[in-house]
Amino acid sequence: MEQLAAAMKGFMSLLARLCLAAVFVASLVGNKIPQFQQTTELMQSEGVPNPKLALAGAIFLLAIGGISVILGAWTRIGAFCLLVFLGAATWYFHDFWRFADPLQRQLQTIQFMKNLAIAGGLFALLAFGGGAWSVDGWIGRKRQEVEAGGGATAAKPRVPVKPTTQAA
What we know:
- By secondary structure, the chain is mainly α.
- It is about 75% helix and about 0% strand.
- Helix 1 runs antiparallel to helix 3, helix 3 runs antiparallel to helix 4 and helix 4 packs antiparallel against helix 5.
């Protein structure tokens, strides 16, 4: 029963990482990269300083963070990258407090709250890591195996052998 529970926990952590990363990777490949110029113009209209550099930074954060979270490799670093992107995007694009129109305020509030929920998932990755079914989990298991072996699995040091010479 414990093996089934461990397998389900590993599967759920993988599924959670994939769901979180999907939002960011889809934004990267469906919008940010192919529509670089249009995105830069939108960023400029929203008051983002130095929009071309900011977009290049956003692409970097999305790529590094998305790949890291999907693989579960350096998961905490990847989650942090995505949190930085998400915080900036939420501040500039879902600033509901600026809208006087009730409909626009409501729509931006919903987007803000959605991003807050996504941030919660990223904070969970920061706290708990990528889970058992991740590169980080695999590395952790290998490290435990080595530590549990007490060095018995380590390679024995080689003793240098003097070369022999044969008389001709």
